[in-house]
Write a structure and sequence with these properties.
It catalyses: L-threonylcarbamoyladenylate + adenosine(37) in tRNA = N(6)-L-threonylcarbamoyladenosine(37) in tRNA + AMP + H(+). With 340 residues, the chain is of the alpha/beta class. It is 44% helix and 18% strand. The protein has two domains: 133 residues, ATPase, nucleotide binding domain (Nucleotidyltransferase, domain 5), CATH 3.30.420.40; 173 residues, Nucleotidyltransferase, domain 5 (2-Layer Sandwich). It binds 5'-O-[(R)-(carboxyoxy)(hydroxy)phosphoryl]adenosine and zinc ion (ZN).
């Protein structure tokens, strides 16, 4: 099929995103977040997120169209996240996407949220080389993937987290450190004034007998919480900057070490780092250093495309459309706990 404009809708968590992509090119996107409404609860409240999507859906689509200089009638296909994610939140996005696709008489594509994160990078750096290793690090996922053709081949999981996701670890420790929600960016900011060698937090699954590409962050999370608690029990102020820098160092070290090792083992020349935690400055700088040393090309999408957005879902829809993939039936349902 030819050069149609694909509208992508993302609503799996607390961001309502709409993006417009044609032939691999981002034409415009818009985002609304309910993050502030969840802040006082210390995490995303599913009911609040779903209501916020309902509130933001139409304005966000309208804004994306305006930014792209397009009209509703220019949309040639609709792509929408069907999972994984919060079920109420996904349902709002899917209902909106179905309505648009049906009323415009255009195909609808269901998109896996993680495939969206992978495809985000294509909007900045062009088509992904086949194969490439992708490290997805977000609040819900930490996975190392071997990706071939996103539109045709299944994504191979080399390893996943056995417990907490890296972003979740940042979010939870930040709370114990008294930093604001969401914790990842707050840890990143606090770490600027800290010493990454101040505390040696444990790193799990790095021994010779361990699953080489699995991750575990519950140990470092507990250790960081205990470390902060120790100061409180002694009535001392927690040296948050040092704790944040040391935590960030421990997490970034294991993520980048395993990602580069996977590239080496599978003879892959490109590493793509995506997901919210790819915005972390230490993850970025360590990945840059280690990839350069190993002769691996590193691709990281710009910060705005690293976190949840509609453009990345449109990017997958565009790949599916151009590959001639079968559209989803209008009865398609959400798959909140979708495996990749
Ligand atoms: O991809 P994303 O927006 O949503 C999903 O989880 O799918 O990722 C959000 C996660 C949160 O845990 C947030 O704390 C983390 O990404 N994050 C960061 C940074 N920016 C966002 N973690 C560390 N450093 C950052 N600069
Ligand atoms: Zn995400």
């Amino acid at each position: 099929m030819g050069a149609a404009v694909v509208l992508g809708i993302e609503s799996s968590c607390d961001e309502t995103g709409a993006g417009l992509v044609r032939e691999g090119r981002l034409l415009g996107h818009a985002l609304a977040s309910s993050m502030d409404e969840h802040a006082r609860f210390g995490g995303v409240v599913p009911e609040i997120a779903a209501r916020a999507h309902l509130h933001s859906f139409t304005p966000v689509v309208r804004q994306a169209l305006d930014r792209a200089g397009l009209r509703m009638s220019d949309i040639g296909a609709v792509a929408v996240t069907t999972g994984p994610g919060l079920s109420g939140a996904l349902q709002v996005g899917l209902a909106g996407a179905k309505t648009l696709a049906y009323s415009l008489g255009v195909p609808l594509y269901g998109v896996h949220h993680l495939a969206g994160h992978v495809a985000a990078d294509t909007l900045e750096h062009g088509p992904l080389p086949d194969p490439c290793v992708v490290l997805i690090v977000s609040g819900g996922h930490t996975s190392l993937l071997l990706v071939r053709d996103l539109a045709r081949d299944p994504i191979v999981h080399l390893g996943d987290t056995l417990d907490d996701a890296a972003g979740e670890c940042f979010d939870k420790v930040a709370r114990v450190f008294g930093l604001p929600y969401p914790g990842g960016p707050a840890v990143d900011r606090a770490a600027r004034d800290g010493d990454p060698r101040a505390v040696r937090f444990p790193q799990a699954l790095t021994g010779p007998g361990d699953d080489p590409y699995a991750f575990s962050f519950s140990g470092v999370k507990t250790a960081a919480a205990r470390w902060a608690e120790g100061y409180r029990l002694r009535g001392e102020e927690v040296p948050v900057a040092d704790g944040a820098a040391s935590l960030q160092e421990a997490v970034a070290d294991v993520l980048t070490r395993k990602a580069v090792a996977a590239c080496r083992e599978f003879g892959v020349g490109t590493l793509v780092v995506v997901g919210g935690v790819a915005a972390n400055s230490r993850v970025r700088s360590l990945a840059e250093r280690r990839c350069a040393a190993a002769g691996i090309t590193l691709r990281v999408p710009p910060r705005g495309l690293c976190t949840d957005n509609g453009a990345m879902i449109a990017a997958v829809g565009d790949l599916l459309l151009r590959a001639g993939a079968e559209p989803a039936p209008l009865e398609v349902s959400i798959d909140p706990s979708a495996p990749l």
